[in-house]
Specification:
With about 270 residues, the chain is an alpha/beta fold. It is built from ten helices and seven strands. A seven-stranded mixed β-sheet has the order 1-7-6-5-2-3-4, sandwiched between helices.
Length: about 270
């Protein structure tokens, strides 16, 4: 079980938390665990074309996937299209939206089996959630705090997966990537929480396993909790994520939410 690692102290006098923005994949849900094992061979295949890949190509793809975790899929596919042109090994250069559709097709083969198991009852929702997260959501709701979730995954898929995990009723709003548009859903939700709902600074908590949402949270003046989750074991700290989240400026880090009472204490709620 992980504990709360506080990296930066919060001001003793501050506004209380009124809203929480969660990332979804890897922070709450593990339904998409293993997406990298789908994206990596796709990128290598598309860049290499008829030629065997070399170590430098594989290394560049691996490094890009690691540092781009959390951004919209279409932005990753834009990078892929540019890499195909740059390497000049594959004479067939596709549109980024084509690459995105092909990636989603391959990824959904894996995800559909997991959702089917949930629907048929051979798996439980808890089997595809980070440990303790449902209790954390419940505790936040009991305290009257509004919950929001955002993801770089396509909006209809996020809604479907939130429902598959029986978590839909916890959230005031769910925001996935808008279909056919290259825009950041996480940034959009944060702007909406600030501009339309009027939440300010430390009234907001941002929880996520990627540098994107933590960085956006810090820019907005929010409290940030990095989720350095192990998506296979669903508990404990993933050191690679931990280092990435520290670099992004997280105020504190957890590996799972089994210590949710300690998190609530830290937040003063």
């Amino acid at each position: 079980m992980s504990t709360l690692e506080i990296l930066q102290s919060l001001p003793e006098i501050r506004m209380g938390i009124e809203a929480v923005l969660f990332d979804f994949d890897g922070t709450i849900s593990t339904l998409r665990q293993g997406w990298e094992t789908v994206m990596q061979p796709l990128m290598i295949e598309m860049i290499s074309g008829p030629h065997p890949p070399d170590d430098n190509l594989v290394r560049e793809v691996d490094e890009y996937i690691d540092e781009s975790t959390g951004i919209q899929t279409i932005f990753q596919m834009q990078w892929l299209a540019e890499a195909v042109k740059r390497y000049r090994r594959n004479p067939e250069v596709r549109d980024p939206w084509w690459y995105k559709a092909e990636y989603n097709r391959r990824l959904m083969n894996m995800i559909e089996n997991r959702i089917k198991a949930l629907v048929e009852g051979s798996s439980r929702p808890e089997d595809y959630m980070i440990c303790g997260v449902k209790d954390f959501l419940e505790a936040l709701c009991e305290r009257g705090i509004k919950l929001f979730v955002a993801s770089g995954t396509d909006h209809p898929d996020v809604v479907r997966e939130v429902k598959a995990l029986a978590l839909y009723h916890y959230f005031a709003e769910i925001a996935g990537a808008p279909l056919g548009r290259a825009s950041c859903s996480k940034e959009w939700v944060l702007r909406k929480l600030i501009d339309q709902h009027g939440f300010r600074g430390h009234q907001l908590l941002v929880v996520g396993d990627g540098k994107v949402e933590i960085g956006l949270g810090r820019e907005a003046g929010a409290v940030t909790l990095g989720a350095a989750t192990d998506e296979v074991g669903r508990r404990g700290v993933n050191e690679v994520k931990r280092r990435r989240l520290i670099k992004a400026g997280a105020h504190a880090i957890v590996g799972d939410f089994l210590c949710y009472e300690r998190i609530l204490e830290w937040l003063g709620i």
